[in-house]
Design goal:
Elements: E1 4-7, E2 34-37, H1 39-46, E3 52-53, H2 66-74, H3 90-99, H4 104-108, H5 111-119, H6 128-132, H7 135-143, H8 151-166, H9 171-193, H10 198-205, H11 210-239, H12 243-248, H13 254-265, E4 271-276, E5 280-282, E6 285-287, E7 292-296, H14 320-337, E8 342-343, E9 351-353, E10 358-360, E11 365-366
Parallel strand pairs: 2-7
Antiparallel strand pairs: 1-2, 3-4, 4-7, 5-6, 8-11, 9-10
Helix pairs in contact: 2-9, 5-14, 7-11, 8-9, 9-11, 11-13, 11-14, 13-14
Length: about 375
């Protein structure tokens, strides 16, 4: 099997603005990094967490400038290795603790709640801002036993954090984003000290420090809902462009199959990163120790349809089952209730374009009035 690996000794190709269709042949715009694409190549890297460390997975793509760094220091911000960026022995215990909140039984039991939340949001005019934006966040918070959370505030912190860590940002924008990044961290520390919620109680009982708990929860509360919002956004935009598919989504198994197709070909997490721990030869290419790799997850699937959308191996996404369930249930619910729903425009939507995250920012829709013989009803 030939791995497709390209050295990147130059700047000049902008990965942040490439379209999804271009990603399988894209290169990373940062000098000295290496792009790895193809199912076998990506899997081989993710399967070897000793040679290919996850330590850089959450490192800011744009180096943090002094002004932004000072802002984070004032907020006592820190991100110790916990889950996605943890190559130490502490990873297994922390992963097991978080997994206890996301067991298959607990996730499956959320299906009626997901249906209810979707039905409450059917009267919106944009499937991102009116439905996908907060539904995954509410579901995640309930699974983690976190109540009395200001969801709009959490979503604002999440959006700022994604841009801060994965965006191609100017110094002024980075400093602006550092404010909400620090606020989010401070909020997490305060919730931990108050033992406010089942997740924080469990972390404290497990002996996790306030710093480690805040670091773990920081990206758990972002990744656990933002990526599902993005998955729904991609899925709605693609499904509504295929009228025959939209008509079939209410049938058993169709939504699930469609979600897997989206994950194979257009996952919201399009790239992930690793760093070599030692000199290594990969498909005949010599990589030095400390080589930064950009793994192309989008389009990385084999002849049997197995894909890398949720990663592989030791750091496989803990929320994979939840994301699959939410996406399929929401798609099936909306398509069944609103079979005549259509895109308000067939123009390409505005996109979230970060190094690792791509999804429509808006999916405006309309429902022909003839379907209802009058005003569009609020379904709830």
């Amino acid at each position: 099997m030939q791995f497709r690996i390209r050295p990147l000794p130059f700047d000049g190709v902008d990965l942040f603005t490439l379209t999804r269709d271009e990603l399988p042949s894209a290169v990373c715009p940062v000098s000295g990094r290496w792009v790895v694409s193809g199912y076998s190549a990506v899997r081989s890297v993710l399967a070897d967490p000793v040679t290919y460390l996850p330590d850089n997975a959450l490192t800011a793509v744009t180096p943090v400038r002094p002004a932004a760094l000072r802002s984070l220091v004032r907020a006592r911000f820190s991100l110790p290795p916990t889950l996605a960026n943890n190559s130490s022995s502490s990873h297994t215990g922390l992963r097991r603790l978080v997994a206890s909140f996301l067991t298959p039984a607990r996730v499956a039991a959320m299906e009626p709640r997901i249906v209810s939340l979707a039905l409450e949001r059917l009267d919106g005019v944009d499937l991102v801002s009116d439905l996908a934006w907060d539904l995954p966040c509410i579901v995640l918070l309930e699974l983690l036993g976190l109540s009395s959370v200001d969801v709009p505030a959490l979503k604002a912190w999440s959006a700022a954090s994604l841009e801060f860590f994965w965006g191609d940002v100017s110094p002024s924008r980075q400093l602006e984003l550092a404010g909400p990044v620090g606020e989010f961290h401070q909020w997490l520390v305060s919730r931990y000290h108050a033992r406010d919620g089942a997740l924080f109680e469990a972390l404290a009982d497990f002996g996790v420090s306030a710093e480690d708990a805040a670091g773990l929860c920081y990206f758990l509360l972002i990744a656990g809902q933002e990526t599902t919002t993005q998955l729904l956004s991609v899925a709605f935009d693609r499904a509504l462009r295929d009228r025959s598919l939209w008509a079939r989504l209410g049938s058993p198994g169709v939504a699930e199959e469609f979600v897997e197709d989206v994950l194979r070909t257009a996952p919201p997490v399009v790239t992930w990163r690793r760093v070599t721990s030692r000199p290594v030869v990969l498909d005949g290419v010599s990589l030095p120790a400390g080589a930064e790799l950009v793994l192309l997850l989008a389009g990385a699937f084999d002849s049997n349809g197995r894909h890398m959308a949720f990663g592989y191996g030791r750091h496989y996404c803990l929320g994979a089952g939840l994301a699959r369930l939410e996406a399929a249930v929401v798609l099936r619910t909306v398509a069944s209730k609103l079979p005549d729903l259509e895109l308000a425009s067939l123009e390409p939507p505005p996109m979230l374009q970060l190094l690792s995250f791509r999804a429509p920012l808006s999916v405006p829709v309309r429902c022909p009035m003839s379907q209802f013989d009058g005003e569009r009803p609020r379904v709830g």
